[in-house]
Amino acid sequence: MEPRAGVSKQDIRERIWDYMESQNLADFPRPVHHRIPNFKGASRAAEHFPRLQAFKMARTIKVNPDAPQKNARFFVLESKKTLLVPTPRLRTGLFNKITPPPGATKDILRKCATSQGVRNYSTPVGLDSKVLVDLVVVGSVAVSEKGWRVGKGEGYADLEYAMMVSMGAVSQGTPVVTIVHDCQVVDIPEALLEDHDLTVDYILTPTRVITTGCERPKPAGIAWSKISCEMLGKMPILRSLRHREEQAGKDVTLQDGPRSPPGATRSPRDLAPPELGSVPPSSVQIGNLPRDARVSELKRALSALGVAPSRLTWQGPQHRAFLHFRDPAEAQQAIACLQGFRLGANTVRVVLARQQRASDLVGGHTTEPLPDHRLAIAGP
Q1: How many Cα atoms are found within 13 Å in the side-chain-facing hemisphere of 373?
Q2: Which of 21, 28, 136, 379 has a CA-to-CA distance to 254 between 20 and 30 Å?
C-alpha cells in the first residue's frame, strides 16, 4: 500500500479506509471512512502499550477517545495512573479526567475506558489546573515508520497537542504513541507535512512495536493562522487560550479574521457594565442552582468548561446567576456549552436572559471585569 507520486493526504486516507473495508480488517463502528478506524486486532496492538518504558515512567497519560484506543485507556486506569481524555471536538473544554469509583473491579475499569464510561466517570480539567502530561496517545488513519502521521482530516489531534503546548502541559520531549493496524503503516511523502502536523515516537500494531526516532519538531504551539473564526466560535477553550496569548503579546491573527495587534485592548465602552436595572441580550441566566451553592464553585466549573463571561451577577437566594458576555454570539455559544451542566446534585437551567427589571437584580453582586478580561466574580 505504498502511495503513488503526487499523492495527497486525502488520497492516503481513502486508500486506507477502502482497503480496511474491502479486506474486512475494520471493526465496529463501520464503515471506517471519515473516522479513526477501529480494527480487528486493536486489543493485541494495545498490549504493547504497558510494556513501553515511556508508559512505565509516566504518571499522567492523555489518550484519545476513539474506539481502537479503548484498551490503552484501560491499561492506564488499571495501572492507577491519571487518565486524561480530550472532550469530543473540544467543544466543552480540552480534557476530562477519568475517575473510576472507589474499589473498581477490572470490569468496572473496562467500562470506564469505553466512550460511555468516559462520559459517566469524568470531571473537566481547566486551563488553570497546571496539569503535566507525561505521555500522549493519538489515533491515526496512516502513519509512516519515520513517525509522520495522517489523521482523519479534521485536525483535532494536532490542535489538542498545540493547545497542550500553550498550556505548558507538554514539551518537545513528551513521547507520542499511536496504535494502528499493520496496513496503516505506509510511506508518507515528507512534502505533505506542515509545521502544525503532529509526529509520533512509537507505533504499536498487532505484530510489532516501531520506535520511529523521529527528529522532526512537534508543533511549538497553536498556529493561529490555521484557525478559522468558525472554529474559534465553536471552542470556548480555544478563545480563552487566544486571549491569554494575545495578552502575552503574541500574534493571534486568525485564518479568516482581521489582525488583532499584540497587546491590543478593547475600548472602555466595550468593557462597560450593563446599565443598572437591565440585562443585555448578551447575557445568560443560570437557574436551579443548589441551595448551598457558592459563587466560587460556579466560577471553577465555568473556568473548567472554558466559559469566560466578562462579568457575573450572583443571586444565591434566588438560586440563579447571570453571565454577561461581550456579544450575543458569545452568549449563544455559552448556552450550547452549558447544556446538561450540573452543579452539585442539580442539573441547572441555562437560557438566554430576557430584559430584566431593576427589581429583579436587587441583591445581586456584579463586578467589573479584571484587567485581563478573565472571569471576575464577587459574592459570598
Answers
A1: 22
A2: 136
